[in-house]
Amino acid sequence: MTSDIPTLRWGIIATGLISSWFVADLSLHRPNRRANHSTKTPTFDIVYIGTPNALHKQNCLDAIRAGKHVLCEKAFALNVAEAKDVLEEARQKGVFVMEAMWTRFFPLVQKLQHLLHTEKVIGDVHRVFCDIAMRMDIASLPSTSRLKNPALGAGSLLDIGIYSLTWAILTLESEPASESPSVIASQHLSDGVDIATSVILTYPNGKQGIATSSAMTKTSPAFCRIEGSKGTIVVEGFVASMPSFFTVALPGQEPERYDFEKPGKGFYWEADAVALDISAGKTQSDVMPWRETLRVMGLMDEIRRQGGARFPQDLN
Length: 316
Hints:
The protein is of the alpha/beta class. The protein has helices at 17-26, 56-65, 80-93, 107-118, 156-172, 268-279, 290-307; strands spanning 9-13, 37-38, 46-49, 69-73, 97-100, 125-133, 182-190, 193-202, 208-214, 222-228, 232-239, 242-249, 256-259. It catalyses: D-xylose + NADP(+) = D-xylono-1,5-lactone + NADPH + H(+).
């Protein structure tokens, strides 16, 4: 059977853990799919960037100026100013660029959003609590580590906190960058690096998202709780970036659990979406559009402003 997903030839920048997971997922055999594949030759269509955050801007600019499409890992840049520079270059060159917020492309997330915002199974969503925490023992790392060096974009917010922030946004908002919440934030710093961040997003209608991250402990499997006027939904998984199932609980009814199969890690869903967008002649994604990348980067800039985490590049 001919696949509906066109083939892309991928060039990979960086060989770290996430990049290796991404490449492994590209190589998975799945029914009715041609393989998106990585290549060691100069002939490729798109660059996947999995370098430390501080290198994203220059890596993106180099690829864009070479006429290549780009899928860049989150966080897309260190701050909104860097993100604007990259996206303006992409606009001028007419190439596809997307921040690799892969979790947004999971079928689980898309089903959850449909239940929340279209079917409104728990009524109006009032509050969302989401946490992501991973023990990293940052104190024992060398000062050159990407997890400890502010010049490389170190900190729990950009590394993992972006996930809890994303869960709050996608469960409280029906469309990307459709609303403008206010921000209250606090960070615990060690040697200038945020190792714990707590954020409250408050929307004009009163709904709130509480998003937390920490490098000092480990989140329980039930990492996200969504509270509505008619019931609740709890999302569970190994970590917030890789959800496994969610459970809808309504008063007087048996809880209903939604499970989703996930061969590999799940990076192929965003890779397939990128292939379809590029084939359609798009320069940005409807799921993760440029305006959403800029909005989230702006929120994280404000969180760091309030919390105290700084990067040397913020002064440029």
